[in-house]
Amino acid sequence: MIELGLSRISRLLQQTPLSWKAIHIAGTNGKGSISAYLSHLLTADGIRCGRFTSPHLIDRWDCITIGESVVQESLFRHIEAQVKLRDQTLGIGASEFELLTATAFEIFNHERVEIGVVEVGMGGRLDATNILNNVLVSVIAKIGLDHQALLGNTIEEITREKAGILKPGVPCVVDGTNSPEVLSTLDARVKELGLTATYTNPNAPSDLSPSLGGVFRDLDLLPHQRANMCGAVSALKLAVPRVRPGSDVDSLIPQLSNVEWPGRLQKIVLNPLITRTEPVLLDGAHNAQSAEVLGQYVEQKLRSQGKNVTWVVAASRGKDVTSLFHSFIKPGDQVATTTFGPVDGMPWVKAAETEELAACVRSIPEIGEVKSFGDDILGALNWASGNAGGGSMAIAGSLYLVSDILRLLRDAQKDRL
C-alpha cells in the first residue's frame, strides 16, 4: 500500500542526522537516467557518491549504490533490520518505501558518502525522500500524467506535487523541454520561493559544456536522452563546486559516453535463457510519455525498410494499456502478452491479466498474431523468438517485467557455470 506523508519517515530518522549532502530529483520520466549520469560523473571526480533509486531492478538492495557498486546484501539486511526494529519499537507503522528510504539514508551515513543522489519515489511534496534537509540542488525532470489517483488529475496539479521538493535557498534545474503548462507552473513556484533556476536547452549543449556536443554526436542520442544529460550536467555544475571548490567539471563530461542504465532502451542477448543470439531490446516504458519515447526509438532503430517487430509485453494493473501499447506496437507486429511475478517489497503491485492486454493489442488495426501466455514468461520469450526469427524483438510495458527477465537470465547464466 502506498501512503504519502512525512510524519512517519520523520520519526524513523529523528535521531539520525544525515551526514551527507544531496542532489534530489523528481519527475515522471528521466529521474533514473539523470541519477545514473550524476552518480557516474561524481564518482569519476573522486567524490564518494551514494545513489538511491526506485524501484529496484533485480534484487531489493540494488536500488542503493555506493561509488557505482550495488551495496552489499549483508550490509543492507543489517541496517534494514535496525530500521525495522526502530519502527516496531516506536510503533510508527512505516510503509515499505519509508523503511527502504530510511535504510538507504542510514547506509549513506554508514558508508561516509559525501553526496547522495536521491530519486523521488512518487510525487515529491509528500514523498518520503523529501525529508532531506541538506540539498545542494533540486532537479525536475520531464513531467507527465501518472499516478493521478494520488497526485492529481491535471498536469498542473501533478507538477505542483513534484515541485514540492523545491526548497528556499536551494538552486534548481528544470528540464526545459517540458510542456508550457508544466513550465509555467514550475516558474510560478520558483518565483514564489525566490530560487535560482536553470532551464535546460538540449539544442545548445555547447553552451552548457564545450564537450557535451561531442558526446551527443558520438552517441547519436534521442531528444529525451539529450535532455536528461543536460539536466545532469547542469546539476553537476551547481553541486560540485560546493563540495570540491576548483574541481574541473567540464573535464568529466566525456565520461557520459560510458554510462549504462539497465532496462532503458537496453540491448541484451538472452542466450542462454533462450536460444536466440541476436540482441533484444529491453525497455521498462510504463506510462504514456515513456511509451512514446520507446515508439520513436523503435521507429528509428528497429523498423528499417518497414520491417515489423515481435513484442513480449506485460503491464501493471490499473495502467492505461491502450495509450501505452498503441504508442509502440504497430500494424503487422506480433505480440506475446504475459505477467510479472510478485514484486519484493511492493506487495500492492499486481500484474494486469494477459487476456485483457491481448484484447487491447488486438484492437490495433491489421495487427499480426497475438498470443497470451499467462505467467509463463519463458514460454512468451520462446514463442516471440521463434516468430521473430532473426528479426527485431522487443520486451516492454513494465519495469517489473524487465526485472523478472533479468533475474531469469542471471539464473540461467549461473546454471550454465
From TrEMBL:
GO molecular function: ATP binding; dihydrofolate synthase activity; metal ion binding; tetrahydrofolylpolyglutamate synthase activity
Enzyme Commission number(s): 6.3.2.12
Involved pathway(s): Cofactor biosynthesis; tetrahydrofolylpolyglutamate biosynthesis
UniProt-listed PROSITE patterns: FOLYLPOLYGLU_SYNT_1, FOLYLPOLYGLU_SYNT_2
Gene3D superfamilies associated with the record: Mur ligase, C-terminal domain, Mur-like, catalytic domain
A GO CC term attached to the entry: cytosol
Catalyzed chemical reaction(s): 7,8-dihydropteroate + L-glutamate + ATP = 7,8-dihydrofolate + ADP + phosphate + H(+)
GO biological process: one-carbon metabolic process
Keywords: ATP-binding, Ligase, Magnesium, Metal-binding, Nucleotide-binding, One-carbon metabolism
Matches recorded under PANTHER family: DIHYDROFOLATE SYNTHETASE-RELATED (PTHR11136:SF0), FOLYLPOLYGLUTAMATE SYNTHASE-RELATED (PTHR11136)
Family in the record: Belongs to the folylpolyglutamate synthase family.
Name of the protein in its database record: Dihydrofolate synthetase
Organism taxonomic ancestry: Eukaryota, Fungi, Dikarya, Ascomycota, Pezizomycotina
